[in-house]
Amino acid sequence: MESTRRRATRRTLIAVAACVAMTGVSGCTVPIDAVAGISVTDDGRLLGVLMVCGHRIDGATLYVDDADADDTTTVGSWTADRPLLAGLATWPLEPPTVGWTATTPLAPLTVRTTYALYGWTEDDSWSSTHVTFTLTDRDRLTPGKVLYQSISDDGEESTTTVSLTEFKREACRHD
Question: Where is the signal peptide (predicted)?
Fold first, then answer.
């Protein structure tokens, strides 16, 4: 019991330190309350995956993850028909997509390009972590597996591929 409390306290301290550091660097940030990932359908189509941890997410955007932050290119954006509340949401990034509206239809993805997917709210009250990937990463995925950026107990971020069941169980543990 004591070690569980210590881990929870350590996670809280890491999260607070990260928020303080981000606020100091960027001025304003949107609080994170969801985790983004990607997967594929049985026929190989790209799926967006969002695990909402407690509040809500209204949509998601896929963009080119370029080193020059002033030059980001949106390659797809989707708005959920209803706000996504706590729990798991998945949707194909290519139409038709029941429950989602493509506000920017998915553009063709290209090799040697890194993409990032994240979730957002229309009023900027909440957002999700982002997941970065290339077409090679997508091609390595199999149905039922989710690629996402996980955060270890010591605050280190790494790209991880897990089963959908494990993603649902673990994704919100570090938020």
Answer: 1-27
CA–CA dist 83, 81 (Å, integer): 7
Token code pair at residue 71: 């030059």
> pLDDT per residue over 15-72, tens digit each?
333 443 443 344 468 889 999 999 999 999 999 999 999 899 999 999 998 766 566 7
Chain mean position to CA 74 = 15
Strand partners, 16: none
For 156-171, the pLDDT digits (tens) are 888 999 999 999 999 9
Using alpha carbons, list the distances in angstroms from residue 86 to 30, 55, 134, 156.
Answer: 18, 6, 28, 25
How do beta strands 34-40 and 157-163 pair? unpaired
| Cβ–Cβ < 8 Å for 56, 121 | yes
pTM of the model: 0.80
